[in-house]
Amino acid sequence: xxxxxxxxxxxxxxxxASAQTPTGTLKKIVDARTIALGYRVVAAPFSFVGPxxxxxxxxxxxxxxxxxxxxxxxxxxxxxxxWVPVTSDDRIAKVKLGEIDLExxxxxxxxxxxxxxxxSSLTFIxxxxxxxxxxGPPRLAGLEGRTVGVLAGSTSEMRLAALLKxxxxxxxxxxxxxxxxxxxxxxxxxxxxxxxxxxxxxxxxLLAQPDGAKFALAEEDFSIEPYALMMRRDPDFRLAVNxxxxxxxxxxxxxxxxxAWFAKFGKPSPVLASMYLLQIYGE
Length: 283
Prior knowledge:
The protein has helices spanning about 1-20, 25-30, 60-75, 90-95, 110-115, 155-165, 180-185, 200-210, 235-250, 255-260, 270-275; strands spanning about 35-40, 40-45, 45-50, 55, 80-85, 100-105, 120-135, 145-150, 170-175, 195, 215, 225-230. It is of the alpha/beta class. The strands form 3 sheets. Strands 7, 8, 9, 10, 11 and 12 form a 6-stranded mixed β-sheet that branches. Helix 3 (about 60-75) crosses helix 9 (about 235-250).
């Protein structure tokens, strides 16, 4: 009996030790002392390249704080961040192939995408609308007979097409390379509108302002876009990321981040404030 108890105790201790040993993505990060973060080049104010050539923006800075949280959880010194640019079209593939561990852009969490990858707790909620020149259509109905640019692989591409079909609005949808390409096509009048998330459209116009052109946002949103950090399917890594996010949301860091990137737009909406509060979990 004594030997049996000692055996059971030894197995239990071994199981406990192995449960605490990092596996999957966490092991990859620990072994390399590096984490690969994906970022968008021109998706201000969430994820873009600043004047100094370094990735920045709300989601990028949020990811940096998540990395600090992972360092604390794994009891590691400072991790090296390997920055990898992604587009709306290749971001899922780069996650699945292991080229990036965490995507820090403007990706909407959807059930269709969850069939391929995993998502963190929500990081922001925005609405999708469209941008045009100042004399362009103010509402979806005004897109009749016009050409609308969308990013390949974006939720705007799928949802706008479905909504136009539902409302019997005959508009031509074309793919653009990126936000910069879309703005230039608007100025050149090769497209009549560009559909994307509202704050990203605002951020892009503030950065662009080409040739003194004046732009206008539509008066209605055509979808709600809940953003999250994208990753491979890995429950332990997702838990570690969500734990880091919950600690950020419950402390002063959240207000600092919001004010740094969105103070000019006013206080968080009731929906956004509720989203943050509902994702603060106890240990």
